[in-house]
Amino acid sequence: MGGFEQASVELRFRAVDAGPSVSARLPALLAPAWPSYLAWFLRDGEHQRPSRGDGAAALRRHMPELSPLYEELVAAVGGGDLQARFLSHWCPPPVATACSLAVWNRAEPVLVRSYDYPAALSDRTAMASRWGGVGVLAMSDCLWGAVDGINEHGLAVAIAFGGRPVVGPGFGIGLVVRYILQVATDARQALEILDRVPVSMAYNVALLDRAGTGAVVQVGPDRPTVVAPGLTAGNRQGWTEWAEHAALCATVEREQVLAHMLADPTSTSQTLVGAFGRAPIYRDPATTAWGTLYTAAYRPDLGTLDLLWPDDGWRLSLHHFVEGHRTRRVPALQPGLPAQAATLAVPV
């Protein structure tokens, strides 16, 4: 007796110890990924990307503590012009995504983030590092950036696209997250960095430190940095400014559910994390090109990252990190369903 078998995509998640220097493991990680990174980096033409000198100068000016790491990394991967321009993260091609954020700063504090992104374009590496003597565990972005992470001081950071179609001179948010994890020890210092470092697009940034101080911060290239009134976020910065994007990722519905959970006196950190495994926060990859590939839950008091799926979980510890991998099969986008989210153009 036969039946319909749902098409699926195999995703390999890996936990990698990048070591004490950016030259230890990163060159080997870049080599197989470079053709894909380069195709994305040059998708609008090489003339659209800033020069090597511009990127290096921006790092020295805005994130000077990262500049020596950048120069070491560029040399380690061969010192090529395009590699140097890519690795600066300065004015990268614009990318629209989804994702949800929540900060629980009561008993058993936890920062939770869903990663909603096209499966074929995702980076699925949990990377432990000790660059400059600072312990960091983060989900990597464009090799040495990070979309979320935690450092040895107990500061956790995560991002979600801010839902505004604005692009300006600034860094890709992934390298800003890396910078925060490398140099900040608490949420206050992280906020100071977000207030002064220019970003290329609008993002919501969640912060939670070991003392329980939490915030959701709205950043963008065209407005001052704002601390949001609540501790949850989807893909808006107060109101809908890009209706097509908001409709495709159901951001209003997700925001309402998360805000209600934090306001409900019966909620706990466990029920909040559990909500990320159910609709509407969890978004089935079979029904949308921006499906949920994983949920990340960071616990500052423990220094841990839980990678979560509706039927499984994988705990990684910054203090007791063990390399490994997990293979997951996620449903492929069903034929005939709209796939605009995978290529939704950001007006520039």
Description:
The protein has 348 residues and is α+β, with helices and mostly antiparallel strands. The protein folds into 2 domains: 75 residues, no CATH class; 228 residues, Penicillin V Acylase, Chain A, CATH 3.60.60.10. 28% of the residues lie in helices and 26% in strands. The chain contains 10 helices and 15 strands. The chain has a 9-stranded mixed sheet with strand order 10-9-8-7-6-5-4-1-15, covered by helices on one side. The protein has a 6-stranded antiparallel sheet with strand order 11-2-3-12-13-14, with helices on one face. Helix 2 packs parallel to helix 4 and helix 5 packs across helix 6. The longest helix has 16 residues. The radius of gyration is 19 Å and the shape is globular. The N and C termini lie far apart (53 Å). The C terminus is likely disordered.
Entry summary:
By secondary structure, the protein is an alpha+beta fold. It has 2 domains: 19-93, no CATH class; 95-322, Penicillin V Acylase, Chain A.
Q: Looking at CATH, which topology of the largest domain would you report?
A: Penicillin V Acylase, Chain A
Give the total of domains.
2
Order of helices and strands: EHHHHEEEEEEHHEEEEHHHEEEEH
Largest sheet: 9 strands, mixed
Strand order of the largest sheet: 10-9-8-7-6-5-4-1-15
Which percent bin holds the helix content? 25-40%
Query: What separation lies between the terminal Cα atoms?
Result: 53 Å
